[in-house]
Automatic annotation (TrEMBL):
The keyword Magnesium does not apply. It comes from Paracoccus laeviglucosivorans. InterPro entries: DNA_brk_join_enz, Integrase-like_cat_sf, Integrase_catalytic, Integrase_recombinase_N, Tyrosine_recombinase_XerCD. Residues 1-25 are annotated as: Disordered. This is Site-specific recombinase XerD. Residues 142-351 form the Tyr recombinase domain. It holds the Pfam family Phage_integrase. GO terms for biological process: chromosome segregation; DNA integration; DNA recombination. SUPFAM superfamilies: DNA breaking-rejoining enzymes (SSF56349), lambda integrase-like, N-terminal domain (SSF47823). Keywords: Chromosome partition, DNA integration, DNA recombination, DNA-binding. GO terms for molecular function: DNA binding.
């Protein structure tokens, strides 16, 4: 098996069209380079990383079983997802969640497509086995806790307002919550349009609030973030403070703080830092103190900000749907997680 079989995420080999021979005109080579850039832009960096890891996992299983990973054989793939679902020793002995198996299958389809090959996931060796795995092992989704406004305020109090890192973290928490943003949308923001190649949107500060133009999963959308009722909870003021003290005039909005907290570097924060921030601030604020301490970190992540807005904003549902960029109200409802589950009591309303 060639080394290429373990790395489907290599843009020059898997994602991109083949480069023209060196004797071709320079203009044609330039077009090939641009085509590679466009091909990479067809999927997010996070997706490519996940798919590369999934392919490596599959290729490792094939190697241990003496199979050719480069042959898109539905029967082999059916055996692979069976091994994942049953926790076979050939996949490390760990039972995979149904969602993980479905993602790995999508990764294989993607990886073969990049090689000019085709894997038919509707083939009975794949589709029937996957249907059985879903019926046998499917479980309700494990959702992160939604942050209530009082939770967020408690988390903000744990951020040091006298430090650059504290100012940045406060702005990220407030912008993420008030905008109902995904992790990548928070860290992908630039101060202005077309200022960086890896930016996913930009901001405009207006008298009434903040206007965000974002490129997300569902395409471009605008998000309005109004000013808060007090300076302590206003996302616009928090952002302005960060920009002023960090001396950011252009480029990435949220960056690494360097030199032991005394300077701001040029590098954009990785979106995983949003999840780490939420976990860290939630722990410092003592959220969910009703649970044992070891169980609390798993309850919170970057999505807790997004779900928090959806669950807390007492407005017409269509406004929340627009803010989150959902195509359907049903998707928005999945984010609305109320701890007071019995606030509406249909039993009493029915006369019992």
């Amino acid at each position: 098996m060639s080394d290429d079989a373990t790395e489907p995420g290599r843009p020059n080999r898997e994602v991109s069209p083949p480069a023209p021979p060196e004797h071709q005109p320079a203009a044609l080579r330039d077009l090939a380079d641009r085509a590679r850039g466009y091909a990479e832009a067809a999927s997010s960096a996070n997706t490519r990383r996940a798919y590369a890891a999934d392919w490596k996992h599959f290729a490792g299983w094939c190697r241990r079983e003496g199979l050719d990973a480069l042959a898109p054989d539905p029967q082999f793939v059916g055996l692979y997802i069976t091994a994942c679902a049953s926790g076979a020793p050939s996949v490390g002995g760990r039972v995979h969640a149904v969602s993980t198996i479905e993602r790995r299958l999508s990764a294989l389809v993607w990886a073969y497509t990049q090689r000019g090959l085709s894997l038919d996931r509707r083939d009975r060796h794949v589709a029937t086995v996957l249907a059985g795995i879903r019926n046998r092992h499917a479980a309700p989704p494990r959702q992160k806790d939604a942050l209530r406004p009082e939770d967020l305020i408690a988390m903000l109090e744990t951020c040091d307002r006298g430090s650059l890192r504290g100012l940045r973290d406060r702005a990220m928490l407030l912008i993420g919550f008030a905008g109902g943003l995904r992790r990548s949308e928070i860290t992908g923001l630039d101060l202005g349009r077309d200022q960086t190649e890896d930016g996913r949107g930009w901001i405009e500060i207006l008298p009434g609030g903040l206007l965000l133009r974002l490129r997300g999963k569902t395409g471009w959308r605008e998000v309005e973030i109004g000013r808060g009722s007090t300076p302590a909870t206003c996302p616009v003021e928090a952002l302005e403070l960060w920009l002023s003290f960090a001396r950011i005039r252009e480029g990435a909005l949220f960056r690494r703080v360097t030199d032991q907290g005394r300077a701001v570097g040029p590098m954009r924060l990785n979106d995983r830092e949003v999840a780490r921030l939420v976990k860290r601030a939630a722990a410092a604020a003592g959220l969910r103190g009703d649970l044992p301490e070891p169980d609390r970190p798993a309850l919170f992540a970057g999505h807790s900000l997004r779900a928090g807005l959806a669950s807390s904003a007492e407005v017409d549902e269509r406004h929340v749907q627009k803010q989150l960029g959902h195509a359907s109200a049903e998707m928005t409802r999945r984010y609305q997680r109320r701890r007071d589950r019995f606030r509406v009591n249909l039993t009493k309303a029915a006369g019992l």
